Amino acid sequence: MTSKPIRAIVVGGTGYTGAELVRLVLGHPSLELVSIVGNQTAGQAVGDVLPSLRGVVDGVVQTFDPDAIAEQADVAFCALPHAASAEAVSALRQRGQKVLDLSADFRFENLSVYEAWYGKHPVPERLPEAVYGLVELHREELRDAELVAVPGCYPTAATLALAPLVKNGLVQSEGITVDAKSGVSGAGRTVSSATSFSETAEGARAYKAGAHRHGPEIEQELSRLAGAPLNITFVPHLVPMTRGILATCYAQPASTSVTAESCAEAARALYAGSPSVHVLDEGQHPDTLWVRGSNRVHVGYAQDRNSGTIIAMSAIDNLVKGASGQAIQCLNVRFGLDEGAGLRAPAQWP
Amino acid sequence: MTSKPIRAIVVGGTGYTGAELVRLVLGHPSLELVSIVGNQTAGQAVGDVLPSLRGVVDGVVQTFDPDAIAEQADVAFCALPHAASAEAVSALRQRGQKVLDLSADFRFENLSVYEAWYGKHPVPERLPEAVYGLVELHREELRDAELVAVPGCYPTAATLALAPLVKNGLVQSEGITVDAKSGVSGAGRTVSSATSFSETAEGARAYKAGAHRHGPEIEQELSRLAGAPLNITFVPHLVPMTRGILATCYAQPASTSVTAESCAEAARALYAGSPSVHVLDEGQHPDTLWVRGSNRVHVGYAQDRNSGTIIAMSAIDNLVKGASGQAIQCLNVRFGLDEGAGLRAPAQWP
Amino acid sequence: MTSKPIRAIVVGGTGYTGAELVRLVLGHPSLELVSIVGNQTAGQAVGDVLPSLRGVVDGVVQTFDPDAIAEQADVAFCALPHAASAEAVSALRQRGQKVLDLSADFRFENLSVYEAWYGKHPVPERLPEAVYGLVELHREELRDAELVAVPGCYPTAATLALAPLVKNGLVQSEGITVDAKSGVSGAGRTVSSATSFSETAEGARAYKAGAHRHGPEIEQELSRLAGAPLNITFVPHLVPMTRGILATCYAQPASTSVTAESCAEAARALYAGSPSVHVLDEGQHPDTLWVRGSNRVHVGYAQDRNSGTIIAMSAIDNLVKGASGQAIQCLNVRFGLDEGAGLRAPAQWP
Amino acid sequence: MTSKPIRAIVVGGTGYTGAELVRLVLGHPSLELVSIVGNQTAGQAVGDVLPSLRGVVDGVVQTFDPDAIAEQADVAFCALPHAASAEAVSALRQRGQKVLDLSADFRFENLSVYEAWYGKHPVPERLPEAVYGLVELHREELRDAELVAVPGCYPTAATLALAPLVKNGLVQSEGITVDAKSGVSGAGRTVSSATSFSETAEGARAYKAGAHRHGPEIEQELSRLAGAPLNITFVPHLVPMTRGILATCYAQPASTSVTAESCAEAARALYAGSPSVHVLDEGQHPDTLWVRGSNRVHVGYAQDRNSGTIIAMSAIDNLVKGASGQAIQCLNVRFGLDEGAGLRAPAQWP
Q1: Distance of CA D143 to the CA centre of its chain
Q2: Shortest CB distance from A184 goes to which of C184, C185, C198?
Q3: What is the mean pLDDT of each run of 10 residues along chain C (350 residues)?
Q4: Vertex A277, ends A274 and A278: CA angle to 5°?
Q5: Which of A168, A251, B222, C183 is the most buried if burial means most Cβ atoms within 10 Å?
Q6: Residue B67: is it exposed, middle or buried by C-beta count within 10 angstroms (0-12/13-18/19+)?
Q7: Cα gap D154→D221, rounded to integer Å
Q8: Which secondary-structure segment (H or E) carries C135?
Q9: How close does chain C come to D305, measured CA to CA in Å?
Q10: Which domains does chain D have, with CATH numbers?
Q11: Chain D nearest C-alpha distance from B297 (Å)
C-alpha cells in the first residue's frame, strides 16, 4: 500500500464502459486516475459528460495525445470503437505504452475472420503481440502481455459457461447453441430509436440472429479448448434492462454419464482459484441482478428432462465483467497484483 | 349487430387473465358480460379487485354457482388454477354449459403426461371431449367444441413459430430447442419476492430449465404435426417486462435447400386466412412490444451464417394471444363469428 | 351503424401520438381511416414506420397535400410539431377542412403568451376560430368548432384535477402548485440520450422546473374558471415508464370546511355525464397503470394531516386522454356522436 | 491501515438495507464484518438469503444473541422493523454496545410525536441518549454518540434540500411542500401485489398522501433549523424504479432578493466540507440515476418563472444515503475516521 500507485489513463472514456472504468480505477487500491481522454467531448468538464462524476472528478476531458499519455501514465485503457481503437493503440504501443484495448481490434488470431466481420484492419501487424484477455482461460499469457485484447461481453458470458464442458469433452463440440439476453447498455451511448426507453421497455427481441460478430469470437475460444475448429449457433437479444448478460447455452452430452452435476463439478475444478467465477449449486439458475455492478460471473448447469440436452447458463454485468472490470482484472494479472484487487465487491442488490 | 348478444361469464376473473378477458369481452361487438366470478374476492366491488374497471364495471364479484351460470350465460370462460379448474369445468359441463378453459387441465390427450407434470386429474373422463384451442392448427375441430382447452402461453408462441417447419418437413424433428423469454405477468397475480419489482427489474433469468410443464405441451402439438413423437429442449426465462413472450426456436434444416426465406414462405402459406398471424419479411425480427395488448402473433425466420441452424422466432402478448385473446378467438370460431371479431386492434405501441 | 362512416386522415402520423390516433380510429365504430401523412417518411410502408401496424394497415405513408386531404377526408387530425402545425392547419382550413390540431399552436387565447413561450406564430389571425378541446370544460363550444386545439398532456391532467376546486371556490386561487410525473413517451419519438433506456431507467428527474410551457396553458384554463388571472407553480418530471401522467396538485383550502371529501363531491358533480372521468373514493390514490391505454382520467383528493393543504391528484395516459384519445373525444362531440364512442375501453391492466 | 479493524455486526441483515450494509462494510477500509443476524432466516446460508453474496460471504445467518454480539463486535447496525428494533437496541445498549439504528424508534425527540405515528414506544427512556444521524446537520453531536438514529430516506432527501434555505431564512417557514418520488425498494422486501413487478412497472402513484410518518420527521428537523415549530405538506410517491428518491420541495421566498442562485450559494456554504453533498450548477436538475449505488446527494435549485416559488430538489439512493450508507457515514464520524471512508465511490452509471 506504500508502493507507488500505477498511473492509468482512460482513452475513449466518455461512454458507458469509460464511466465504469473510471469508477473502478477510483476504487482500486493500487491505481491512480491520470485523466480521461475523449476527442469528441475534449474540453468539457468531466462531470458534464459523465454525470455520476460531478463532485467526484474535477477537470476537463482531454484530447488524445499519445506522447503525453506515454509520459504521464503507466498503462492505458482504450474504450474506442473498432478501427479507431487500432489506430490509437498502435500510436501508444509505438511509444512503449502498455495497453488494455476494449475494442474488437486485437481479439482475433486470424486476420481473415476479423476482416470478414469488421472490415479492413488498420494495423494487422500488431495482431501477434495481443493476448486475449479472458483471464480465467489465458492467465499465464497475460502475465507479460503488453497489449491485451479485452473480450467482448457475449463471448465472456458464453465462453465461461461452456469452457468446462468443451475443454473436458463433456459435450459434443458440434451443435452448440448460444441464446444470449443483453441489457440495453451493451448498445453503447449512441442514440437510436431502437434503444429509446419508449421503444425498449416492454420489448424483448433478437437482433442480428445468426449473424452477430461475437459469434466467431466465441467460436475462436471454444475451438481452442476443443482442439479443433467448431461452429456454433449464436443469437443475441435485447431485453428491457440496462445492465447484464444472461447466456443460455445448449449442447449435446458426449455420453449418457454426463449430468448437470458433472458439468458443475468440471466448472468448479476449472475455476478453482478464479476470484470472479462462482458456480451455483444444482437447481439454482443465474440471475443478472445477482451480479449487477460487480465483476462476478455466476455459472449454473441443468439438463433437459426430456431431451437430455445440457443447459449451461451464465450471468455477468456486461459493463463490468463484460468490459471494464475484465480490463482491470487483466491489469491486475499483468502488474502482478492480486487478481481480485478492486473487484471483490458483491453486486448492488437489488 | 341486431342479433342477440352472446352472454359470457368469467369464472376466476380476478387475476390478470381475468382482467384481460373482461376488457376483451367489453370490446367485442357480439358479447355481453354477465358477471365476474371469484370465490376469494366474492362480494368485493369489481373495481376494488380490478382497478382498471373502476367506473367501467359496477357491481360485485360473484360466488361460483354453476346453476346460476348455466342459466344466465351462453358460455363461460374459466381462468382458474389447474385442478380447481377441472372441478369447475366439470360442474358447468354437467349443466350443458359451453366452456373455454384457460387452465392446463384439458390440454393433454394423454392422461399420463398430464399426471406426470400436474398431479392427479380430478375428472379424466372429460379429456376426450376437449379440443385444443390453438385456432390456427385446430380450426375445424373447434367449430363444434363444447369444451375448449385454451393453450398455454409458451406453447402458443413456440408452436406457431415451428408449426410451418415441422408440418412441411423443413426441419429435422429431433434436436429442436425452444428458448423463451416471458414477461412477469405470466407468473400471475400471486405475490412472491421472485416477482417483486425490486428483485425483477434488471434481472434476466431462466427458471425450471429443462423441466417446465409447457415442454410436454409443445411436444404434443409438434408430434401431431410431425406424425411421430418427438422430444424438444425447452427453457423458459423471466425478463423485466410485464407482458410478452418471445420464443426463439432452433432447429436443424432437413436439407441444404431450406432457407429462412423458404421457412417464411411455408409460414405464409399455413397462416393465409389466419387474422392473428403476421409473418415478417426477411431480416425483420419479432419484438414483443410490437404486439403488446393485441391478439397478434409476429413470426420471423433467420438462419445462422456459420452453422446453418434455422432460427424460428415469434412474439405474442402472453395475456392476450397467450391466454384471454386466444379464448375469445376460440369462441368466435365456435359460435360462427368472424374469427377476428373483437381482436383486430393493433398493439398499443409504444 | 348503417350511416356513412366519417373519413379521417392523420397528418404527422408517424410518431407516438400518430400511432395512437391510428389505433383509435381503427377501433372507432363511426370512423374510417383514409391515410397517414408524414413528409419525412413519405413513401415508406406504414408497417415499417409504425411496427404495430404490420399486417394491419397496408400501403405507404403519404406526402402532405391539402387539396387531396380536403377531397378525401371529412376531418383531419394534425399531430405535427408546433409552427409546422399552424402552417398545415391553415392550409387545410383554407380548403374548409375540419381540423383537430394536437400541437400548441391554437391553444392560447392570448397571442403574446403563445409567442413568449413558443416564438412567432405563423397564422395568428386563425387563433379566434379555435376552441380549446378539453371536452369536460368546453363541451358546448366544441359542438360546432371547425378548428379544435387539443390540450397538452400536462394541462389535461392538472386542469381536470383542479377544475372542480377552482370553479367552486374551494381553494385559494393563488399558491397552487402542480408537480407532474410523466412517462417518457411524452418526449416524443425524437432520439436523445436523455430518453435512452440506459439513461432513463432508474432515473427520476425534474426538467424545466418552473419554466415549462405547459405552465401558462394550465394558468389560462384555471384563470377562466377562477374568473380572474392566477399564477401557478409548475414542475414536470420524467419517471421511468413509457406512458402516463400523474399530476399531484397542492392548494390551500378556502375555508376550514373544505375537506378531501367535499372536493371529491365537487368533482363528482362537475364530471357527472363525463364518460372519461372517474372520481376515486376517499383514501384511494390514482395510479397511471390503472388508466394506461385508455381515455380515462382517475381523479382523487386528500388533505394533509398537519398542514391542511388540499392534495388533488389525477392520472391519465399521456398519449390517449393527453393527446390522441382526447382528439377523438372532441371529434365525437363535434360530429354529434356519443362522446365515449370508441373510447370506452378500460385500461390494459397490468 | 495497520490499525485493528472495527468489528461490525449487522442485525436484521437479510432485507435490502441489510444487503447494502454488508456490501458497504465489505468495501470499507477500516471495517470487518463479524456476522449477519436475522431471526427469521437464522441457520440458512447467507448466499441463499442474499443472492448477491453467493461466493462472497460464507457461513449462515445467526440468531440474535446480544451477549455474543457485545463480545464479538465493536459496533452493531440494527436494520429491524420499528418496535422490534427498539427492543434489540435496548438489549445491546445494556451491554454497552455502540448501535447505529436504522429504524424510526429513536429519531424523535418528542415521544408523543413518535407514538402518534408509530404506536407505543417499547423503551422511551432511551430516547434522550440517541443522536439523529443526519451527519451534515448533526456532525458534532455524533462524535461521541453511543446510539445513533439513522434518519429515514425521505427526511434525508427533503431536509438536505431545504436546510440551507430554512436555516438562512431564505424561505418562509410556513407553506413548505415536499413532493417525493421513491423507488420501490423503499417498501422493503415484504411481498405485496402493490410492489409486484406487473402492478408497479408503468405505474406512478402517491401513497399515504398527506399522512405519511416521515412528514413529522421532516418537520422536526426543519423546525430545529427554523428555531420554531413549522408544518409542512408531504406526499410520497412510488415510481417504477428500484432505487432512488427525488424530492421536489416548494417554498415561498422570504424576499424578492432570493433567487435560485442565492439558494445554491447557501447550500454550497452549508455543505462545504461535506463529502457526500454536491450542489449542482444553475439549470441542472438532480437525477436519481446519477447517484444510484452511491452515498452521494445531488442538490439543485430553481425558481418558478411565473409564481416566484423556490424549487429545491435533491436526489439520493434510498438504500445508501437514505439508509445504509448514511449509517456508515455516522460510524465514520463516531469512530473518528474520515467521514467519506468507504463511501467515496461515484454512482454506478448507467
Answers
A1: 18
A2: C198
A3: 86 95 97 96 97 96 98 98 96 98 98 97 97 98 98 98 98 97 96 96 98 98 98 98 98 98 98 98 97 98 97 98 98 98 97
A4: 120
A5: C183
A6: exposed
A7: 12
A8: helix C135-142
A9: 6
A10: 6-132 (3.40.50.720), 154-318 (3.30.360.10)
A11: 22
**Mean local confidence (pLDDT), A176-180:** 98
Mean pLDDT of D85-110: 98
Assess contact for C153 and C218: CB atoms under 8 A. no
Tell me which residue in C16, C56, C347 faces B350 most closely, judged by beta carbons.
C16
Rounded CA-CA distance C340/C332 in Å is 7
Active site residue A153: yes
* Separation CA C131–CA A345 (nearest Å): 60
Of B1, B22, B290, the CB nearest to C52: B290
Planar angle of CA B180, B181, B182, nearest 5 degrees: 120
Digit-coded pLDDT (tens) for C150-185: 999 999 999 999 999 999 999 999 999 999 999 999
Query: What's the pLDDT score for residue A3?
Result: 80
**Cβ–Cβ contact D198 with B under 8 A:** yes
pLDDT at B2: 56
What is the Cα–Cα distance from B313 to A85, expressed in whole angstroms? 35
Rounded to an integer, what distance in angstroms lies between the CA atom of residue B57 and that of residue A156?
Answer: 53
Read off the pLDDT of residues D165-200 as tens digits, 9 standing for 90 and up: 999 999 999 999 999 999 999 999 999 999 999 999
Phi, psi for residue B259 in degrees, rounded to 5: -130, 170
pLDDT at B3: 80
Stated pTM of the model: 0.98
Q: Does A310 score more than 70 pLDDT?
A: yes
User: How many H helices and E strands in chain C?
Assistant: 11, 13
Task: Please report the beta strands in A12-160, taking only residues with DSSP state E, as ranges in sequence order.
Answer: 31-37, 75-78, 98-101, 130-132, 147-149
CA-CA-CA-CA torsion sign (C287, C288, C291, C297): positive
A321 and chain D: CB distance < 8 Å anywhere?
A: no
Once rounded to an integer, what is the mean pLDDT over residues A155-159?
A: 98
Q: Which chains touch A (3 or more CB pairs under 8 A)?
A: B, C, D
3-state secondary structure (DSSP) of residue A114? helix
Above pLDDT 90, what percent of chain A? 99
Three cell numbers at D40?
427469521
Give the pLDDT mean for B265-287: 97
Q: Which amino acid is at A196?
A: S
Q: Is the pLDDT of residue D1 over 60?
A: no
| ipTM score assigned to the predicted complex | 0.97
CB neighbour burial string for C54-92, b if at least 16 within 10 angstroms, e if fewer:
bbbbeebbbebebebbbeebbbbbbbbebbbbbebbbbb
- Give the rounded distance of the alpha carbon of B309 from its chain centre: 27
DSSP C50-89: SGGGTTTS-SBPBPP-HHHHHHH-SEEEE-PPTTHHHHHH
Euclidean distance between CA atoms A69 and B183, whole angstroms: 48
Helix %, strand %, coil % of chain B (to 5): 35, 20, 45
C-chain residue closest to B185, CA distance: C350
Average pLDDT (D298-323) is: 98
d(CA A246, CA A237): 10
Give residue for cell 424523535.
Answer: D108
The pLDDT tens digits for B45-70 are 999 999 999 999 999 999 999 999 99
* Average pLDDT estimate for A127-155: 98
* Cβ-based contacts of B240 with chain D (< 8 Å): 197, 201
User: A–C: how many Cβ contacts below 8 A?
Assistant: 54
Whether B291 contacts B343, CB under 8 Å: no
Question: Distance (Å, rounded) from C-alpha C75 to C-alpha C128?
Answer: 20
Which chains contact C through at least 3 pairs of Cβ atoms less than 8 Å apart? A, B, D
* Average pLDDT, integer, range A288-315: 98
